């Protein structure tokens, strides 16, 4: 399927600089551009490539001013990255979707299946499960008894959704995701640890993305809740009774301990760890590998363990590299002071 620069500019409300009849049929990174492809320039580090790219069309921000001649057609927009996302979504929506229930899938007689649903080979749909319209469930995925999944969802292969959990509309669960495994609840005794039954559920609201091999544990009682618009990367652990506010994003290997409340619009870098029973406010930004032992107020931007202001953190990092030399100097100073004391005493 081909689109012209004129059609693309109309869709993303951009300004064409060059040939409005230039056409594209695929996407490419600006450094790997080819004729018939559309690329984008958002990060200034990639600016040199725009003068040599072979892509037919390049999306750029409105404030971009070329310093040399450019052969490609430009489309200027408010935000090139956001505009690219819109085009990629349009491209993805244009792809034909699978439909129908494979003869090798198991669907319980009491399950309710919506219209235009796809259920792949060896997928399992449990008793009284509900699958919404246009939802796609790929092979080897397990949907337990009483699970409710909304419309337009996508569950890739080997996803496991335990009994009674709830998934909203337009959610995407990548391979290996586990929704509703038991929370880590054990009571210590003289003989070891007695398991505490986890009788709650997990609720994913609308437009939640769950990365590959990410786990969201069911609550001990009540629900572990992931609110609408949350995006979670691969290999993330969300423990029992946690609540994650709308539009929060988490990079890979984040770990949230139990009964923690995360606010809206937060951003967590990779390997952030948050202690249990903490309360994290809205619009909190945590740098990669931050270790959080307790509550954080809304609007904070922190990094490190314990978390601190980024400027203070990087200053401390510089000092830390000097600690061996500082220790040597301190020992020498102590030695000199002792020698001075001895001289004075004489």
From TrEMBL:
Catalyzes the N-acylation of UDP-3-O-acylglucosamine using 3-hydroxyacyl-ACP as the acyl donor. Is involved in the biosynthesis of lipid A, a phosphorylated glycolipid that anchors the lipopolysaccharide to the outer membrane of the cell. It comes from the Bacteria. Keywords: Acyltransferase, Coiled coil, Lipid A biosynthesis, Lipid biosynthesis, Lipid metabolism, Repeat, Transferase. InterPro entries: Hexapep, LpxD, Trimer_LpxA-like_sf, UDP_GlcNAc_AcTrfase_non-rep. Homotrimer. The lineage of its organism: Bacteria, Pseudomonadati, Bacteroidota, Bacteroidia, Bacteroidales. It is an enzyme of class 2 (transferase). The keyword Lipid metabolism applies. Residues 316-346 form a coiled coil. Pfam families: Hexapep (PF00132), LpxD (PF04613). It comes from Bacteroides acidifaciens. Residues 22-90 form the UDP-3-O-[3-hydroxymyristoyl] glucosamine N-acyltransferase non-repeat region domain. Its EC number is 2.3.1.191. GO terms for molecular function: N-acyltransferase activity; UDP-3-O-[(3R)-3-hydroxyacyl]-glucosamine N-acyltransferase activity. The active site is at 240 (proton acceptor). GO terms for biological process: lipid A biosynthetic process. This is UDP-3-O-acylglucosamine N-acyltransferase. Belongs to the transferase hexapeptide repeat family. LpxD subfamily. Pathway: Bacterial outer membrane biogenesis; LPS lipid A biosynthesis.
